[in-house]
Structure formats: structure tokens, C-alpha cells
Design goal:
Number of helices: 12
Strand order of the largest sheet: 1-2-3-7-4
Distance between the termini: 54 Å
């Protein structure tokens, strides 16, 4: 007897980072549930106006979000606390987290490998740039290991001495893992994945988002996942200003245009600015489209 995707996936732990994981606890709905919710507006007796895949793609393409809220996923995740801080900024989910007031803290920390230390980006205050060299990386990893070991020893000693868990925990590093149940509807899950699977998202949370999307959402909602990739994650949205640049470049008859031509045809609001993130983002989009080089 063939097992359903839900039966196959439930409680299967997909590893993330060194000690983290994501796993499916429960799910309500499937692709057909979104379709059913959308078609209720047609009224009883109305004929099916399109096949399921076509309708789901229409809904995603035109941002008709309510039908996607009719399906929900509940996950169990183990994640470093600093990564979890970013995660719970998405406030459209129901959360119940492991409590270190009631239980001893999880004895696992996220360790940075010598070749994984990233430098601060010079152009993005909240992002990283290139990688530090191996010698510096090894030194930082060695220091991190000492800090992790000492902080856990101090914590364990406090627990042994009878210090309240709520107080003993206060000097644990943010690299300490926590666990939580996270229940979210499909619309808001796609919002989370759309932001956190982007190439400019922090590496750690991008790994979690990718694991959730590829291993859980994709097999449970294949048509929705396909539409999400086509119209959200892998799409390019063009502003009015960016469309104006494309129109002016197209009149030049040169394809692809040079960076000098792009700068000559940039929007008037960007001219004279030594640094302009909007202009840089426009240039990157047009490079992806092959309009400039």
C-alpha cells in the first residue's frame, strides 16, 4: 500500500546546520484545499472554470492570498537562538517554544567552521560580504569553542548548586539551540520562504527556509510550490522607475547595453547620488534579464 506524502514526512527530521533540524508535525489541506476555497466564491452549481494547476497559478500570480490561508502546516524545529530571533519576526504564526525556565537548556550550540567566518559587508549594514582567511578563521573557531565550553560549564555548575533555571540560563550564548512548534498558514509560509530563501538572506536562516521549502512544502503542495517559484521566489518585480530605464535603453538599439549607457539612462532621482541602493538593485535586475552587462 502506497503511503501518502503526509505519512512519509511526518516526524521525519531533516538536518540543518550542525545540530538543527526541521520536521513536519501535522498538515491541514493540500493543493485541492486551496482550489476548493477559491471556487466557493463562484457559487453553488457553477462549473469548474479551470483545472487545479491553472487556477492555483492564477491565484499566486495575481496575489489572491486568502485561499492559501485555508491550508496550514505545523513544524517542529531545532534552531540556534540568534537565528530564531529573525524567525519569530514573522508574526503570523502560532508558536510554542522550549522553555529554559522549566527545563534544562539544550546541550547543543551552533559552531562556526574555520572556513565559514564572514566579513561585514561594506555596502549593506545588516549583511555580510566575503570570507575571512583560513588562519583568522581557525583562530576565531578556537576562541568560539573555548567560549562555548566555558559558558556551558558555568551554566551546569549553577544548576548543580540549585540556582533557578530562569537565572542560570542568562549567560548562555545565542548560539545555543532551542526547539519550537511553529504553525503557519500556507500564505504566510510562502511570505517567510520568499524572504528567507533569497540569496541576500542570512546563510543560517536561508538553510532552514530551504529545508522547509524543498523537503516539506514541495511534496505536500506541488502545484502551489511550482507557482511560488515562478511568481515569487524566482520572479523579478520591476518598479515604475525601472520600467522607465528599460524603455529608454530599448530605444538605443544596443543589446545588451553597457554600464555607461545604463548610467546615462538612469532615473533622474538617482542622478548625482554617489551611493544609491535602488540604482544598484535596478542594475542587478537588468543584468539578470540580459538587458545590460
Amino acid at each position: 500500500m502506497t503511503r501518502s506524502p503526509v505519512e512519509t514526512l511526518r516526524w521525519q527530521k531533516f538536518p540543518v546546520l550542525d545540530h538543527g533540524f526541521v520536521c513536519l508535525v501535522d498538515v491541514m489541506g493540500e493543493d485541492a484545499s486551496i482550489v476548493q476555497a477559491a471556487r466557493v466564491s463562484y457559487g453553488e452549481g457553477t462549473k469548474q472554470v479551470s483545472d487545479d494547476r491553472t487556477l492555483l497559478r492564477y491565484l499566486m500570480r495575481h496575489q489572491h492570498t486568502t485561499p492559501f490561508e485555508m491550508a496550514e502546516i505545523k513544524l517542529l524545529v531545532r534552531v540556534p537562538m540568534d537565528c530564531w530571533r529573525q524567525w519569530i519576526r514573522h508574526r503570523t504564526a502560532s508558536i510554542n517554544e522550549y522553555s529554559t525556565r522549566y527545563s534544562v537548556a539544550i546541550d547543543a550550540v551552533y559552531a562556526t567552521q574555520p572556513d565559514a567566518w564572514r566579513m561585514q559587508s561594506e555596502s549593506n549594514k545588516q549583511g555580510s560580504g566575503g570570507m575571512l582567511g583560513p588562519e583568522m578563521g581557525q583562530s576565531l573557531t578556537d576562541e568560539e569553542e573555548k567560549l562555548h565550553r566555558l559558558s556551558r560549564e558555568v551554566y551546569d555548575q549553577r544548576i548543580e548548586r540549585g540556582v533557578a533555571r530562569e537565572l542560570a540560563r542568562k549567560d548562555l550564548p545565542l548560539s545555543t539551540y532551542t526547539e519550537a512548534y511553529w504553525k503557519v498558514d500556507l500564505h504566510n509560509l510562502f511570505r517567510f520562504l520568499g524572504l528567507r530563501m533569497e540569496s541576500n538572506a542570512q546563510y543560517e536562516i536561508r538553510e532552514y527556509a530551504t529545508a522547509i521549502g524543498e523537503n516539506i512544502v514541495k511534496p505536500l503542495f506541488p502545484y502551489c510550490w511550482e507557482a511560488f517559484l515562478d511568481y515569487q521566489l524566482e520572479s523579478i518585480r520591476l518598479s515604475r522607475l525601472e520600467q522607465g530605464v528599460i524603455q529608454r535603453l530599448s530605444r538605443l538599439g544596443t543589446s545588451p547595453a553597457t554600464r555607461e549607457q545604463f548610467l546615462a539612462e538612469q532615473d533622474a532621482a538617482w542622478r548625482g547620488l554617489e551611493r544609491c541602493r535602488e540604482r544598484d538593485e535596478c542594475f542587478e535586475k537588468l543584468c539578470r534579464l540580459g538587458i545590460v552587462r
